[in-house]
Specification:
Blueprint: E1 7-11, H1 16-26, E2 33-37, E3 43-47, E4 55-59, H2 67-81, E5 86-91, H3 110-121, E6 125-129, E7 144-147, H4 150-160, E8 165-169, H5 175-185, E9 188-198, E10 201-208, E11 215-223, H6 227-238, E12 243-251, H7 257-263, E13 268-272, E14 284-287, H8 290-301
Parallel strand pairs: 1-4, 4-5, 5-6, 6-7, 8-9, 8-11, 11-12, 12-13, 13-14
Antiparallel strand pairs: 2-3, 9-10
Helix pairs in contact: 1-8, 2-3
């Protein structure tokens, strides 16, 4: 009977805050690495312990700047060249996921390019959460464990015990997610229809469905500049909603996001710690994904099914 290869967890520089929580949940210490930056901005990553024959999990979200993606690629390459048994990229937030297709002529499909880069670096498996587009899984020819925040958000919504609950999709693309939640929670659903002048700028927003006298929960995979979310919340409150809350997996929160959230009529926004968050708004509450990732890492390492981690 062959022995199970040892498991080792490592972290990229900017995701260490989350990697430490995952390692603690799993019950191991993070592995030792060294990050050296040269005067021109180039950097080098090295493992300060052996990974030969080990099952290596590298935890790193690939949010801007692109150095975070490059660091992950270098860590994968270094682990493969150091004879790791398997290398798994744990990417709680998969950057460039919004570039999943050609939405106009002469643009790149960034998500596919990132998939190609990860594969070229030698990764054996990818683990991520709430991709902006599900089809990105098909950009890989290796296993992709696509986790969902519903395992955390559904219990949270249930514990709020809201009467007259309505689940809202922030746009037409989010109807599948909202419909799944609505069915599971036995709630009705409304859809926000929006048009954009350009990226991050909402031109027109309307709501399809009745929100009067309802407690509304908006679901989205990410909240970036918070323009859509706050406009939708204000509009629903003006249409007679009792309250509006939002659940978003990835708290990008760029540009005027915090100001918009604080100035809006939204009651609270619940996000995860897939990205580092500045705690400068009382309306933002954070749920950790560490337990979910630690559990799935354990199941992948022990060749167990992860289907029990999916609620909706």
């Amino acid at each position: 009977m062959s022995l199970q290869p040892p498991i080792k967890l490592f972290s990229g520089t900017k995701s260490r805050f989350l990697a430490e929580k995952i390692a603690k949940e799993y019950g191991v210490e993070l592995g030792n690495t060294t990050f050296i930056e040269f005067s021109d901005g180039e950097f080098q990553i090295s493992y300060e312990e052996t990974v030969r024959g080990s099952y290596v999990f590298i935890i790193q979200s690939t949010f801007p700047p692109s150095d975070n993606l490059m660091e992950l690629l270098l860590m994968i390459d270094a682990a493969k060249r150091a004879s790791a048994y398997k290398v798994v990229a744990v990417i709680p937030y998969f950057g460039f996921a919004r570039q999943d297709r050609k939405d106009k002529p002469r643009v790149a499909i960034g998500a596919k390019l990132v998939a190609n880069l990860l594969t070229a670096a030698g990764v054996d498996r990818v683990m991520t959460m709430d991709l902006h587009a599900d089809q990105i899984q098909g950009f890989f020819d290796i296993p992709v464990d696509h986790l969902y925040s519903s395992s955390m958000f559904v219990p949270y919504i249930k514990n709020m015990n809201l009467d007259n609950l309505v689940i809202a999709a922030p746009d037409v693309g989010g109807t599948k997610r909202a419909n799944a939640y609505a069915k599971f929670l036995g709630a009705s659903m409304v859809i926000c229809s929006k048009s954009r002048k350009r990226a991050n700028v909402v031109d027109k927003l309307t709501v399809i469905g009745d929100v009067e006298g309802k407690n509304v929960v908006i679901l989205d995979d990410m909240i970036d500049t918070a323009g859509t979310m706050t406009k939708a919340a204000d509009m629903m409150m003006d249409k007679g909603a009792l309250s509006v809350r939002a659940f978003a997996t990835h708290a990008v929160l760029s540009g005027p996001a915090y100001e918009r959230i604080n100035d809006s009529k939204i009651a609270e926004i619940i996000v995860t710690d897939s990205l580092p968050i500045k705690p400068i708004s009382d309306k933002i509450k954070v749920i950790s994904v560490a337990g979910v990732f630690a559990d799935v890492i354990n199941k992948v390492y022990n060749y167990q099914s992860i289907s029990s981690n999916f609620i909706v």
